[in-house]
Amino acid sequence: MKLYCLSGHPTLPCNVLKFKSTTIMLDCGLDTTSVLNFLPLPLVHSPRLSKLPGWVSKDGNINLEKELKECAKRVFVDSQPEFCLPEKELLDLSNIDVILISNYHCMMALPYITEHTGFTGTVYATEPTLQIGRLLMEELVNFMERVPKSQSATCWKNKEVQRMLPGPLKDVVDVWAWKRCYSMLEVNSALSKVQLVGYSQKVELFGAVQVSPLSSGYSLGSSNWIIQSHHEKVAYVSGSSLLTTHPQPMDQSSLKNSDVLILTGLTQMPTANPDGMLGEFCSNLAMTIRAGGNVLVPCYSSGVIYDLLECLYQFIESASLGTTPFYFISPVANSSLEFSQIFAEWLCHNKQSKVYLPEPPFPHAELIQTNKLKHYPSIHGDFSIEFRQPCVVFTGHPSLRFGDVVHFMELWGKSSLNTIIFTEPDFSYLDALAPYQPLAMKCVYCPIDTRLNFHQVSKLLKEVQPLHVVCPEQYTQPPLTQSHRSDLMLELQPPPMPYRRCSVLNLPFRRRYERVYILPELANSLVPSEVKPGISVATVSAVLHSKDNKHTLQSVSKPPPAPPSKKRKRVMEEPPVVQAPKPLLSGAVPLEAFLATLQKHGISEVKVEETADGHILHLQADDTLIQLEADGTHIVCDNNEPLRTTLRDLVLRFLQKL
Amino acid sequence: MLQHSKAFTFFVQADFIVPLLQLQTDSSLFVASAANQTLAHTLVFFQPGGNGTFKNPGKVERTQTSIGVEEPFSQDYSSVLGTISQFLKESLLPKENTGLHQSQQVLKLLALLLARARQPLRDKLLGTVADSLQELVAAGYSQLTPPLMDIILAAYSSSSTDDCVPDQRVTRLLSSMLNITKPSDLIGAAAAFLRGGRHHQDAVHTARAVRILLLPLHIVTGQTLLGTDTTVEEHRFSISEKLKIKTSCVSMICVCLTHTPPITLMPGDLLPCPPVSILTAVLSLLRIVSGDSSSLSSGCSEVFRNLVGSGKVQKCSLEVLTGLSSSPGMKDKLTEVVTVLIQYLNNPDSDPTVIHKSYQALLKWMSVCEDVSSLTDKFKQDLIDVVKKRVCDMRWEVRDSTVEFLGKLAGVLKQGEETCGALLGGCWSTPLLREALQDPESYVRASAISALAQTLEPSWHQGAAVTQGQTDVVTRLLEILSQDTEAFARRAVVQYFIACADLDWEVKVHTLELAQLLMDEACSGHRGYRKGSDTPPALRHPYAVISARPLGEGAESDVAGALRNLVEQGVVWALLSGLVDCDRPVGLKACQLLITLRDTVCPRPPPGASPATAAASKVSCELPGCGWGREIRKIPGMRRLDRVKEADVAHRTRCGEVGIERTSEGGDSVCVSVCDILSSLGLDEKLDELSQSSDHVHNSALSLLQDILTASAAHTQQDAEPGQEVIVDCY
Predict the structure, then answer these.
(1) Which residues of chain A have a CB within 8 Å of the CB of B293?
(2) Fewer CB within 10 A of the terminal residue: chain B, N end or C end?
(3) Do the chains contact at B305 and A318, CB–CB below 8 Å?
(4) How many CB pairs under 8 A join A and B?
(5) CA A98 to CA B697: how far, in whole Å?
(6) A279, B348: Cβ pair inside 8 Å?
(7) Of the candidates B412, B336, B323, which has an alpha carbon nearest to the alpha carbon of residue B375?
(8) What CA–CA distance (Å, rounded) separates B165 from A149?
(9) Cβ within 8 Å of B, A 445-474
């Protein structure tokens, strides 16, 4: 069993598991942090961005003014932003049988895998994962295609050139694996390969293994996966949460007794408690609004935003923000808000029960009804008519490189009354803000990451007790900036097996058993004999039939009665040697009794020698040796066949035959 | 009973001691404790004095009985002492079947005995048990550490009353206790010793106890609290190991922390480091607990994980930080302390109690350090920023604490120098508080109101013109008072107004002088009127000087007019309310003026003469149904008047005449003829009463009772509207 690790990002994993005869891809995360090296894509012409100076090396030897621009002492690539794809060279991706998706954030690289690698398999995901994943992809494509950029910068990627660039561009790796965004066509094609599954539904893969999604409590439809055969069990834990937010709670008990547990998607903010951050978010928001400023919340169009809106719903009254408008701007804003209300069976119990009442599960419906929350596909059109300040705007993309958020950054960045509150943990906020510097706007970093923290995961692992744990290497040491915090790492016995991008791990368990079925008529013909109380054995002669990874023992078919044809006759002349198998022997030869028997048969000159495994009997008169060992008896007797036969029969007397 | 030697003899001869000793381990704690008390009492009460005679201080009876029975009594006593000593010796060490319970009881008994035993009893007792105690200490039973320490402290305290050096055996015992190998017991023993306050006599052991208590902090924070001192070095390993276990770590650190403030107040030669180092260690600990270990290079990281995020340690450390503010040499650390506290206030994970305690610590430090100007503008700005954020917090507890802090901060800074004004700068806190007046939580609104009172108070009384902002505040407060559904908020508004109103009695007396001037002006020239400014009326009998000047009818009608004026100007109200004022000088002044007024406008009609002041008697004024109006109406004479008027009103209403009328709304407010009031108030008696010192009433139990009755009566009268339930709030 092997694990190929195609992504080094701990929360955007992409691993391939070879298990029995199947090749299973676990998640298909797209590392979008690469876009931070690019200039933002403004929705309307930005004089500031267009006037940025191009970059020329200090000695003037390298001139990349067209590709690279300088802003606030950092260099950005002026081109359509590119994403860092999972590793494609480590193994032939066309061999992948299935892709298991655990949540909508971990499927964004799907079109790159299913459309350009010769992939012919199936993708399994839950319905909300598919639907919301589609929304996120659609949004991403929309953000990119809305502001087309013809230029594609490649010169800077040249190794010799890249070496000369200022940091952090100089240090980025795998730049040739960076690709531009896919198209809607590719998205649709990729998503057409998705087959929907429900929690705890068992899906057979070629009869060899069974896969089954379990609720992971992180987002709508998010799942962990169990991959098991009859005798082995692998648990794949991706983004999971034990907090009570909107999704169904995490199913922990089904993870028990796994041989290997692959652990990814822990919180990226181990020191930031989501409750505290939510409080921080609300108080900063209220503080800004009271002072007459605007609040900008760069966020994904699904996920934490539901919880933010719910929290604000309760907070609005207490903070007397009743008249402040809340805007949610995204090409998929409407669908996201409405989808969330219909996935009843995927919601937490509390919200599920609301489905049967005349009120929607999420309170954002009420915010919309009372006109406190308004949503628009983009800043153009209706929004520009309704727009009223001070206000709160939720919009994407959290990287601040594309989407409507770029416009608000340009609009509000100059006033210290306004505040930008970062809630998504995926991007470093300082890097995100870099191309907007100098910035007067206040910045508040309240990353809300509800995924498991180290404390919770240690408790979880103690309960489910996997034999081995595999995890990204980042989890096996404290964070670089907090080397004292030994509580911010996994400490397990045996220690977890770390992986990084391009690692290939031999998972530390041998497959020892395989289930074989036996047909009833064959079973009927068996003659069991008891070797120990309660344990009987029988020999069986049968044909092992293997199909679709299922093994069946079938009776040996008797040769059909020979037709009187000449040709057949010839065959009959050489009948297949189907002899009855020799009986199997069991038991041990007791030394004293055996010597006595030998004596009875006139063999008295026996010299017994003790060895490590048993005894050697030296029949000196006949120059013959008998080796009695736990698992075998050998008679070494040259040129005296009668004696050998006698001795053999004597030995057999002491053994049981099956 | 056992305070009589005869009873004692009976007690002993009836062999009651043995069952008492058995009851000591009774399953009922009350019985066991009572048995212990009785045994201790028996030995201690009748113990021989230091000079060999029986002492029974304060008991006359003893002298009568002790003579003549001394010899057999002494024998009885010795036998009891023998029995008990034997018992102590035998039962002190735990046996297999009894467990530790008996030992604990015996130790309690010993502690009771030693605390009050004098020589030679103490010596005898110590002689009996010293070896067993040593053995117990060596056995290291954790549960026995506190009672053992009690015994040691008891022995110490009794020896100090006898004014002799501590017994060698006790000292040895203490040395062993401060050398136990079990870390938690060791720290428990050291803490108990310092708590016992015995450290003044025993420098050696005090120094050791201090070092033991500082050791865990030293290990965790890596601060060199112990320097090169190696007296407790042998415990370092065991304590380090214990600190790596979460539960013991937190409790151990908390015990050590709570003892640091008294440690810093000890004489310098007892401490292994300057007190400031201890403060630095507490600050480091606070940083560690909040998860900020980046600045720390030393210290034990395996212990960090037990402490990070521990609310208990956070709260404990913050309390200790508050306590340390008054220790010597700490003021230089203000900046560092404020940094840590602001960090705590800023931390999103700080729970409301932690934030509350941080505010308290901050206030304490700012009030102790007279000069907060040493704080840079950055700190001030940071503080302002965090407070601004916290008033918007989701948790009402946090908003409440913040608002409360703003109020107290104003109080603290008021006491300080002018420079503090910059930090206070009502300009930033007042808008926050005004905003908080609209908080959905009534507690927060109430706190905001009180905070506003504290913040605005200085400007209120400086005589400066009232600003628009202040007017707005008052308007808003009146809204709350009339519209708020929660009592807390309304109550706070009332308190606010009380705080703003001038309570100075001199001001009130001056106000009455103004009333007097108005009276002078209105009534001068009228019959019998004495200008208050001419002759203090209190010095004469009010009836002694009555002008003989005849009065015409016109003058009479003038009196009525003057009186009506006085009613309209509010002079009568001011006088009446002054009469029932809680400040005696105010009451006195008002009483004097009222008498003058009475004598002027409605003198008692001479017997047989027709009322010459009929017009004046028709002038009436309104008595409010509550406040001073109610007080006035409670005066006995007024009650009678009320009853008469009740009957009268019916009569007069029938006759179409209105001398007393019930106002249309309220019902409680009453219009009464001024003359009737003046004659019914019993002003002369009142004057005598008020001329006396206030002490004789206010110091009596009667006043307290009256206070209670008034309060309860006030409650029922105010709230008891028909059909409405009276809810007594016990906030």
Answers:
(1) 482, 484-485
(2) C
(3) no
(4) 66
(5) 95
(6) yes
(7) B336
(8) 94
(9) 446
Rounded-to-integer distance, Cα B564 and Cα B551, Å: 19
The strand pair at A209-215 and A178-180 is best described as unpaired
Q: Beta strand pairing status for A585-586 and A656-657?
A: antiparallel
Interface contact B435, partner A, CB < 8 A? yes
Q: What backbone phi and psi angles, to 5 degrees, belong to B635?
A: -60, 130
User: Which residues of chain A are within 8 Å of residue B290 when distances are taken between CB atoms?
Assistant: none
The per-residue pLDDT for range B664-705, each reduced to its tens digit, is 334 466 777 888 888 888 888 888 888 776 455 455 566 666
pTM of the model: 0.72
DSSP letter string, A332-374: THHHHHHHHHH-GGGB-HHHHHHHTTTS-SSTHHHHHHTTSEE
Q: Is the peptide bond before A494 cis (omega within 30 degrees of 0)?
A: yes
- For B504, the 3-state DSSP assignment is coil
pLDDT in tens, A612-625: 888 888 888 888 88
- Is B308 in CB contact (< 8 Å) with chain A? yes
Cβ contact A110:A99 at 8 Å: yes
Residue B294 to chain A, least CA–CA distance (Å):
6
The torsion angles phi and psi of B58, rounded to 5 degrees, stand at 80, 0
* pLDDT classification of B641: cutoffs 50, 70, 90: low
The whole-angstrom distance between B565's CA and the closest CA on chain A is: 50
Interface membership of B134 toward A (CB under 8 Å):
no
In the beta sheet, which residues pair with residue A261? A235, A469
Q: Which of residues 339-358 of B touch A (CB under 8 A)?
A: 347-350
How far A482 CA sits from the closest chain B CA (Å)? 6
Task: Read off the amino acid at residue A557.
Answer: S
pLDDT in tens, B136-182: 888 878 888 888 888 888 877 766 555 555 677 888 888 888 888 88
- Give how far A81 is from chain B: nearest CA, Å: 34
Q: Which residues of chain A have pLDDT under 70?
A: 559-581
Who among A271, A282, A320 is closest to B291 (CB)? Answer: A271
What span, in angstroms and rounded, lies between the C-alpha atoms of A402 and A411?
15
Interface residue A490 vs chain B (CB under 8 A): no
The Cα–Cα gap between A393 and B112 comes to 72
DSSP string for residues in B536-599:
-GGGS-TTT--------HHHHHHHHHHHHHHHHHTHHHHHHHHHT-SSHHHHHHHHHHHHHHHH
What is the DSSP code string of B95-132? PTTTTHHHHHHHHHHHHHHHHH--TTHHHHHHHHHHHH
The DSSP call for residue A31 is: B
Looking at the DSSP bridge assignments, the partners of residue A543 are A554
Side-chain half-sphere CA neighbours of A501 within 13 A: 16
Contact A206, A135 (CB under 8 A): no
Q: In which order are the strands placed within the sheet that holds A542-547?
A: A516-518, A550-555, A542-547
Please name every residue paired with A528 in a beta bridge, in sequence order, or none if there are none.
none
Closest CA to A101 of A187, A209, A35, A197: A197
Cα–Cα distance measured from residue B133 to residue B149, given in angstroms and rounded to the nearest whole number: 11
Secondary element (H or E) of residue A473: none
Q: For the stretch A320-349, what's the b/e string if a residue is b when 16 or more beta carbons lie within 10 angstroms of its beta carbon?
A: ebeebbbbbbbbbbebbbebbbebeebbbe
Residues of A in contact with B438 (CB under 8 A): 320
**How many other C-beta atoms lie within 10 A of the C-beta of residue B161?**
10
Q: Is B394 part of the contact surface with chain A (CB cutoff 8 Å)?
A: yes
Task: Please tell me the distance from the alpha carbon of residue A466 to that of residue A234, in angstroms, as a whole number.
Answer: 9
